[in-house]
Design a protein that fits this description.
Layout: E1 5-8, H1 12-20, E2 38-41, H2 47-53, E3 60-63, E4 72-74, E5 80-83, H3 88-93, H4 95-100, H5 102-109, H6 114-119, H7 122-126, H8 133-136, H9 178-184, E6 188-193, E7 196-201, H10 202-205, E8 224-230, E9 237-242, E10 253-261, E11 268-276, E12 283-284, H11 286-292, H12 299-310, H13 322-340
Parallel strand pairs: 1-3, 2-3
Antiparallel strand pairs: 4-5, 5-8, 6-7, 6-8, 9-10, 10-11, 11-12
Helix pairs in contact: 5-9, 11-12, 12-13
């Protein structure tokens, strides 16, 4: 690990001042590891690991884990304002989250071990970087780490990499479970930057790789995530994660889903689906959702919706298994949500 200096911020404004007063580093809007940058430090569960590997080499860390954004506030309209410095453990344990947004609590709980959840922060979770082995190995080329050097994963080890939205430059996947749930929840991210505060819809916060795979998000240099806003959900939800082992493993495919069914007609009134483990960002299933609204809440409808969404998949040599895995996961999870709502397989509401 290369030497660095450490400073602790006392407020979001202080963090921004400390960042801007040093250099043009990327902070928690970082796009890659370059000597001389200033980074924001949350729980450090991802950044410190990357520093040890030599993937990230900041000259200065500004600690933002102790700024007063470590609580949840309930707005008059019923939305949750989740502080970016809140730990994952505190988020998953919060009663308002467990009762009103169960998919979010479930996603956090399967995202890491208890020890890591105790340190990791909400903001840091959203900004964690891919676990692609080529990105983490500085002896190998990687466009995300060293733009223009190539993407050996395309022809090499890619069994757990992207099947949707990837490019010739990068096939990495985003590792966050929390971000998948927040995408399905229509959350938004509040950011403080050099131009003042602004709000970014969750589905626009992370980027697909295109020709700039080194850019994980749309954050600008010095931007600091302060809060995440989650609107009321009002329908049953669930998060399910398929992985290679029972704990401390990243998703092969995951799903955050919510379903609202008319109890009398058995028709889908609203639906939310987001997938993890399949793309460079949490993948919101917009085509699948549109195919379901107004349709009977049956396995056949769920299957057609899944196929409509996965029609755009472009699997590589060794990860085509993710297509049927994602399809089956969508169908099973939505079927379970429909059954929990008292809807029969024929799409008719059960007698009350």
């Amino acid at each position: 690990m290369r030497p660095f200096t450490y400073e602790r911020a006392t407020s979001a404004e202080d963090a921004l001042t400390r960042h801007n007063g040093h250099d043009n580093g990327h902070g928690n809007g970082r796009t890659g590891g370059h000597d001389g940058e200033t980074y924001y430090l949350g729980g450090g569960t991802n950044l410190v690991d990357l520093m040890r590997l030599g993937v990230e080499t900041p000259a200065r860390l500004v600690d933002v884990a102790h700024i007063p954004y470590d609580q949840i506030q309930l707005t008059p309209g019923g939305a949750l304002l989740i502080g970016a410095a809140m730990t994952n453990s505190a988020l998953a344990a919060d009663r308002t989250v467990r009762e009103g947004h169960p998919m979010l609590a479930q996603a956090v709980l399967v995202g890491a071990s208890g020890q890591i959840r105790n340190k990791a922060t909400v903001g840091g979770n959203l900004l964690q970087r891919t676990r692609c082995s080529y990105f983490q190995d500085t002896a190998k080329p990687c466009n995300k780490r060293n733009p223009g050097s190539g993407c050996p994963a395309r022809e090499g080890e890619h069994h757990n990499l992207a099947i949707l939205g990837h490019s010739e430059a990068c096939v990495a996947t985003h590792p966050s479970d929390m971000a998948v749930a927040l995408s399905a929840l229509d959350a938004s991210v509040h950011v403080l930057g050099r131009g003042g505060p602004r709000t970014i819809p969750m589905d626009e916060f992370h980027r697909l790789p295109d020709n700039e795979p080194e850019r994980d998000t749309v954050l600008e240099p010095g931007d600091l995530v302060t809060t995440v806003e989650v609107p009321p959900l009002g329908m049953p939800s669930r998060y399910r994660k398929v992985r290679e082992r029972a704990s401390f493993a990243f998703a092969l495919v995951s799903i955050a889903a919510a379903l609202d069914v008319d109890p009398d007609e058995g028709v889908v009134r609203d639906v939310r689906v987001a997938l993890g483990g399949v793309a460079h960002k949490p993948w919101r299933a917009w085509f699948g959702e549109e195919a379901l609204r107004g349709r009977p809440a049956t396995r056949e409808s769920f299957l057609r919706a899944a196929e409509a969404e996965l029609d755009a998949a472009e699997p590589l040599r060794d990860n085509a298994y993710k297509v049927p895995l994602a399809r089956n996961l969508i169908v099973r999870t939505l079927t379970e949500l429909a059954e929990a709502a008292g809807v029969t397989e024929a799409g008719e509401g059960t007698a009350s």
